[in-house]
Amino acid sequence: MRHLLSTEGLAAPDATAVLDTADTLKQTLLGREVKKLPTLRGRTVVTLFYENSTRTRVSFEVAGKWMSADVINVSASSSSVGKGESLRDTALTLSAAGADCVIIRHPASGAAHRLAEWLEEDGTQVVNAGDGTHEHPTQALLDAATLRERLGDVSGRRIGIVGDLLHSRVARSNVHLLRTLGAEVTLIAPPTLVPTGIEHWGAEVRHELDPELPKLDAVMLLRVQAERMHGGFFPSAREYSIAYGLNEKRLAKLPEHAVVLHPGPMLRGMEIAPSVADSPRAAITQQVGNGVHVRMAVLYHLLAGEELTA
């Protein structure tokens, strides 16, 4: 396939190739006063976001510009979507206007796949920047890049993913990718935040955090997505923090080498204590930095290099 829509089915050699390219790009740009490569000169990249975003949108824009692509940002609130234009018509408009790649974030699961189907004949490539509660493949790739930097390798490591599994596209993409790269994944959440069919993800599911901490090489905390919740999934923010928040006492239960991740934005004091978020054990800002290089690598493989197979 010519798109990056999912980590499910992404072959290990292709995922590793993206991570290796990201490492190469990072080293190439290291120490440069002007961070510019001519790799995608003449290419047009469009970010099409129907949901709010800081990290993903900015890092894709920076990635494109550092590779000399022309980057155009389109938000639903300021486009013809506000006048009732369909996603299909918006996509065809962008393709007709000369977009080589459309990066889409959309509240509907499967939106990126539909977009890729509509643009298949036009040759426009599509990157899924998050579709509903389905997937967020570049987030999983940047998380894997961060784990490789901190732990040396992903294979054989045990990764705990904690929190709102029900609404998390980050969790789904990470489970698929981390297992493909040889990691063992443990999912930890209250029963009310565990989706139906999670047994097919191929990961262990636990409901208590503390017994798992000493076994983990990394713990990834998920944002509690209140905007997707209709009804009570836990008694209160305080109760959630007591049961699943990563505080200093829980941090001490992790092995000394273990790393703390969070896709952001963080709910400090609920999902993670401020002192833990700002500690040397946390790689949260490192994830953001790696996100730029990983997204540069994805654009390179789609627009200038070898095609991905999923």
UniProtKB/TrEMBL annotation:
Function: Catalyzes the condensation of carbamoyl phosphate and aspartate to form carbamoyl aspartate and inorganic phosphate, the committed step in the de novo pyrimidine nucleotide biosynthesis pathway.
Spans traversing the lipid bilayer: none
Catalytic activity field: carbamoyl phosphate + L-aspartate = N-carbamoyl-L-aspartate + phosphate + H(+)
GO biological process terms, semicolon-separated: 'de novo' pyrimidine nucleobase biosynthetic process; 'de novo' UMP biosynthetic process; amino acid metabolic process
Enzyme class: transferase
Enzyme Commission code(s) on record: 2.1.3.2
Stored Pfam families: OTCace, OTCace_N
Family (UniProt): Belongs to the aspartate/ornithine carbamoyltransferase superfamily. ATCase family.
Keyword check for Repressor: no
Residue ranges of every copy of the Aspartate/ornithine carbamoyltransferase Asp/Orn-binding domain listed in the record: 156-302
Domain Aspartate/ornithine carbamoyltransferase carbamoyl-P binding residues, every copy: 2-149
Highest taxon in the source lineage: Bacteria
MF terms (GO), sorted A to Z: amino acid binding; aspartate carbamoyltransferase activity
UniProt GO cellular component terms: cytosol
InterPro entries attached to this UniProt entry: Asp/Orn_carbamoyltranf_P-bd, Asp/Orn_carbamoylTrfase, Asp/Orn_carbamoylTrfase_sf, Asp_carbamoyltransf, Asp_carbamoyltransf_Asp/Orn-bd
Quaternary structure annotation from Swiss-Prot or TrEMBL: Heterododecamer (2C3:3R2) of six catalytic PyrB chains organized as two trimers (C3), and six regulatory PyrI chains organized as three dimers (R2).
Binding site for carbamoyl phosphate: R55, T56, R105, H136, Q139, G264, P265
List of residues binding L-aspartate: K83, R169, R223
Keywords attached to this entry: Pyrimidine biosynthesis, Transferase
Pathway where this protein functions: Pyrimidine metabolism; UMP biosynthesis via de novo pathway; (S)-dihydroorotate from bicarbonate: step 2/3
Name under which the protein is recorded: Aspartate carbamoyltransferase
